[in-house]
Amino acid sequence: MNFTRRLFLKILTLAGAILYFPFNKKNKIFAFPELDKSIYSEIDEKSYVICVHNPNATSWDYKTGYYIEYINQEEINKMLDKALLALTGEKEVYLAWKNVMSKYKPGDKIALKPNFNCADKPYARVCQEIMTAPQVINTVIKGLTQYIGVPEKDIYIYDLCRPIPYNIIRKYIPYNVNFIEKPSHSILDRIKIKLKIGLAAPDMSGPIEMREKITDSEGNFITCYIPKLLTECQHLINLPIVKYHQFLVVTGPLKNHFGTVRFSNLSLYPVYLHGKVLHKSIVDLNRNPHIKNKTRLVVADFLFGSYDYKTAEHKTEVKRKWKTFPMGETPNCLLVSKDPVALESVMYFYLIKERKFHGLPIGSDHYLYDAMKFGLGIHERVESEEEFKSIKLIKISI
Questions:
Q1: Which of 33, 57, 80, 272 fits as disulfide partner to 332, beta carbons 3.0 to 4.6 Å?
Q2: Residue 119 and residue 241: Cα distance in Å, rounded?
Q3: Which residues form the DUF362 domain (predicted)?
Q4: Are 237 and 110 in contact (CB under 8 A)?
């Protein structure tokens, strides 16, 4: 994507305006300034986001048992196949995968980054909350192994902030792949953390350039690192969920990498990246070459979705029926793109629309303009699907 100096200054000015625009307390919604859409006239390409819908993908009633057991794997497979054909313009699924993984060479390692943020909760809460469904992970693994010929041993599923338990995740993934999770409190794991041993450990040769000073609660400076897993893998596939975040609106593909970053003080959680440094930290993390240059595909789980964080009625990020989503109360969708910013923009649109319907607060999207400024992808803030211009949103129903 080519950016001129004039375009850079326009985006920078717009991002600043959004960042400092006052909060409308009466309506509990950020009153956004008008968008100067001339910034898009100088973007010489479009980013494609595919929204594929399949009403047969799930059959959960929002109350019975573990929702993962009500997801149809065969239907999910059909959805990703259709999405990749639309995304690449190819006529055959194997050619679509060849297009996506054109840089793959035998022996390369591939990292898959789902969002397992609720995986450390009690089983009863996991049943109600939301995470990347194993079936979505499975369909990606199927494509990599069947069409690209990637050995299962060269595929790594990771979330470094959470455990990956057998009973809620691993037993639903029938492949002999690697799982890289948050280290436990065992003596062995503590030793490995201290000695920086293993793929979950920080690669000391891979510091992340951060524009803000990152500190702990006592003001001590902290350096952020890429984990050894990503410095040793050649390819990355991002598997986020569609979920509201109380500070961002969207916990999408960009913030999903808070489960990637490692810290010089060996902390296992990204708490230092919240607060005033949050927005720049998200962008800085994603512009690291090991993330930016290795990301081949983003497949977002929008089978359900959580448009609110915590309310008096719901104390957790539970799955809810939607009122404004055009495909129905249960989205039953996958969002697929090569552009993480464009895909997050589409997420932002759907979440904002739903939150407005319920009279809920809306947060700023200025970090997405910041991401666009650094060439991470295209962002558009629109009021309707038809208003997307630089983002080409293609909707498919099965």
A1: 57
A2: 14
A3: 110-347
A4: yes
Contact (Cβ atoms closer than 8 angstroms) between residue 87 and residue 338: yes
Q: Please identify which residue in the block is written with the tokens 């494609």.
A: 48
pLDDT in tens, 22-80: 333 333 333 333 444 444 444 446 799 999 999 999 999 988 989 999 999 999 999 99
* Cα dihedral sign, 132-134-136-142: positive
pTM for the predicted model, two decimal places: 0.87
Beta bridge partners, 337, equal 49, 298
| Calpha distance 192→194 (Å, rounded) | 5
Q: How far apart are the first and last CA of the chain?
A: 32
Give bridge partners of residue 235 from the DSSP assignment: 110
Helical residues (DSSP H) of the chain, grouped into ranges? 5-20, 73-88, 93-100, 123-128, 134-143, 187-195, 228-232, 278-286, 289-292, 340-357, 366-373
Greatest Cα pair distance in the chain: 58
Q: Pick from 265, 157, 260, 252: which is nearest to 215 by CA?
A: 265
Cα separations in angstroms, 272 against 116, 194, 226, 269: 19, 20, 15, 8
Domain range spanning residue 274?
Answer: 5-397
The total number of structural domains that make up the chain: 1
The rounded Cα 192 to chain-centroid distance in angstroms is 28
d(Cα 88, Cα 97) in Å, to the nearest integer?
9
Strands 47-53 and 333-337: antiparallel
Give the Cα separation of 238 and 327 in Å (integer): 24
